[in-house]
C-alpha cells in the first residue's frame, strides 16, 4: 500500500496510526503542502485526489481519498485488531466522536481555510488564531462530555475516535489552545501516546518531517 | 426511533432520506435552529447532543449524533436495502464522496460558521455569499470528477454519496450557486429527486416546514 502523506497533516496522521495499529506495511508518497505553491494542488496529484487534499491511500486498483473513508476501508479489509467497538451503539459513539473532529473541527482550521481568511478576507494573525481556538474549544467541550474512558474515548481499546483525537490534540498544542478545560481528553491522549503505534505515526517521526 | 430534526438542516435531510429508503418509521422531535436564539443551544438539547447540532437519532438506549454515524448505524442495524456498494473499494468511493460533502463543504457553510463570519469577523452579506459559493464550487468540482454514474454517484443504486449530495444541491440552489459546471451532479440529483423516498425527506415536506 502507498499513502500520500504530509508529516503535519492531521488527516494523514489518523491513517498512519491505523496502519501502525493494524501492523500494515506502507510506502510513503510525500506531498508537501507548502512547497511549489502546494504540491497537493498540482494537476498530477489531482488525478489521484480530485479534491487536492491529503491523505490518499492506494491499495492495488483502489485509490481512496478522505481519511475516514480510508479508516473504514482498512477496518473492512484488515479487521484485526478492530478499531471500532463490536456493538452497533458503541460503533456509532466512536464514529460520532471521530466525526465531531473530522467534520466539525478540522475542516474549519485546515490550511486552505486559514489561507482564505488571511487572503480573501484580509484577517490578521490574531483573528486567525482566535478562529482556530474558537472552533477547537467548541468541539473539545463536546468531546469532553462524549468521552467515556476509562482508557480511551470508548472503553479499553483505541477506536476511530482516538485516531482522530490525538492528531487534533497535536494541532491544538501547536496553535496554543488551552487544554486545561479538557482533563479527560488530555488523559486519553496521554494513554494513546504511550503506545508504539501512536508514536510511530507522529509527525516528528516521518521521513518528510522538518 | 426518534429523530431530532430541522426541516432545512441538510445533515438531518441526509438521515431522513436513509430512513425513507429503508422504510423505517420515526417520530420527529423538532429543533428550531433560529427560534429562541437557537433551540439546538438549549441545555436540555445539549444533554441529547453535546455539540448542540442536529440531527440526533434516538433508538432505544442509543443516542447518536452526527449524520454519517447515524447512516452507518442504520446500515448495520437495517442492512436492506443496502446504501453502500458490496465491495470494499466501492464502499470506500461512496464514503469518500459523502465525506467530501460532510467534512469539506457543509461544515464551512453551516449556520454557526456564517454567524461567526457576520458577527465576530464583521463580514457583509456579499462576502458571506462569496464564502459559501467558494467552498461549494471547490467541493462540487471534485465531486463532478469522482461521480461514476450512470444513475447515481456510484452505479445503479443510491448510496451514502447520493444521500449527502441531494441536500447539498438543495443548499447550493438556495444560495444561488451556479450549477452549470456540474452536469453529472445535476443529472444524479434529478435521478434521486424522482424517487418517492427522496421526495418524502425533502425540507418542504416536513412537519416543521415554513
TrEMBL record, chains A, B:
What InterPro entries does the entry give?
Glutathione-S-Trfase_C-like, Glutathione-S-Trfase_C_sf, Glutathione_S-Trfase, Glutathione_S-Trfase_N, GST_Zeta, GST_Zeta_C, GST_Zeta_N, Thioredoxin-like_sf
Q: What SUPFAM superfamilies does its record include?
A: GST C-terminal domain-like (SSF47616), Thioredoxin-like (SSF52833)
Which CDD domains does UniProt cross-reference here? GST_C_Zeta (cd03191), GST_N_Zeta (cd03042)
Q: Where is the organism placed in the taxonomic lineage, from the top?
A: Bacteria, Pseudomonadati, Pseudomonadota, Alphaproteobacteria, Rhodospirillales
Query: A GO term (biological process) for this protein?
Result: glutathione metabolic process
Q: Does the keyword Transcription regulation apply?
A: no
The organism named in the record is: Niveispirillum cyanobacteriorum
GO cellular component terms attached to this protein's record: cytoplasm
Q: Which family does it belong to?
A: Belongs to the GST superfamily. Zeta family.
Listed Pfam families: GST_N_3
GST C-terminal domain location, by residue?
87-210
The UniProt keyword set, sorted, is: Isomerase
Report what the protein is called: Maleylacetoacetate isomerase
Domain GST N-terminal, residue spans:
1-82
Listed GO molecular functions? glutathione transferase activity; maleylacetoacetate isomerase activity
What is the name of the gene encoding this protein?
maiA
